[in-house]
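Subject — a protein and its fold

Tokens — whole-number codes for backbone shape
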Amino acid sequence: MALGGKLEIIAIAVLILTASAGAQAQSDILSAQDSDPNMMGWMQGFPPPPDKLITQPDSNYFSFPKLRWSVCHLREFLPTEEISRGLGALVPLDYLSPLEFADMRQEIDALTFMPMSGEEEMTWKESLYANYTDGILIMHEGRVVYERYFGCLEEDGKHAIMSMTKSITGLLGEILVAEGVLDDMLLVRDVIPEIGDSAFATATVREVMDMTTGVQYSEDYSDPNADIWLYSAAASPLPKPTDYEGPNGYWEYLQQVQPDGKHGDEFHYKTINSDMLGWIISYVTGKAITDLTSERFWSRMGAEQDAYQTVDGKGVPFAGGGVTAGLRDLGRLGQLMLNEGEISGERLFPAKVAQKIRAGGDRTKFGNGFPTMGNASYTSQWWVFHNEHGAFAARGVHGQTIYVDPTADMVLVRLASFPRAQNGFIDPTSLPAYQAVAEYLMNRD
């Protein structure tokens, strides 16, 4: 591929998931306070000064610290498709009284916990800045008890949720399985004949859902021949270079994936599984996953705002990481999972869907690639911790989380723009903080 063509797709590659190519070591970068996009002055002024512009042709809008502005403005860089909230009235979230809410914030901010490193205690408030939090919402027993906004995010704003998108795709798949529309024991080729001789052809739908497929896909940004570059080039909605001869779009890429290992043996976190699942869902329903997400829950859960999802050059939504949404609406989604398919007195999907996800996947297949997550598992594109509270989560790079704690009756949503993509850098302070606030809420009761 020509150098110019590769530069054009770098931004898409970063959005497609794992590592932020321009990230530096944590000790070398600006603090959350100093990198606040309002402090940095990104895109301020009419027109902004040249050194404060963040533009698509530069293809560096996802490098830190520009990242901290861009996560709230993806629609200005990439084409998207709407996830409509519909025409119904929103259902307001239930809040503590103003006085109780203010007291609760002070108490939670002052909570202390020991990070996984075990070196020095940290307060909840300190952890928010340590993890470059843009928005945080905590619901307990169905009521909002804590809510704060930082950086680029405001109450009426939206934020990229990265790989939490996968969990929306997985939830749709699990709903279809529960309803008998999709047989998860079928081979992919029996659902989508167009998959041809791809390595996905002989995987079961369940293996795709749980990411235990044996497919070749590497995301090593330092390797110019890594699969991520071909995938990124295929997915880019930007005009292809004149010398480009590869696949065009997510689905064409999936048709040429080669085998690597045996299906069903191990969990391998590979984004292409999510896009394969998105194609399966669209194939069996005859609908784009954006429309299905709106139809099944976004338009029925009292959402405040439409969401949107990035698309490739053929208009196919990015099922592995393209959604941008509001903080409170993600709280509604978490509450829907906590309530096993019910919200505001209406059942949106069978309880067994959430129960299946909460039960988790095969822990023997999880491997050692995620040391901060202990004895976890992965199923239906959700992470299950198997901790004493039975917590499970949707997770995305740079710190995105919907953390559901059934024992504490708590839903926590954290949106962030941490400089490094991998959540393994954030978990040592985030996961103990979540446990601490869950225990605080339980003991307070």
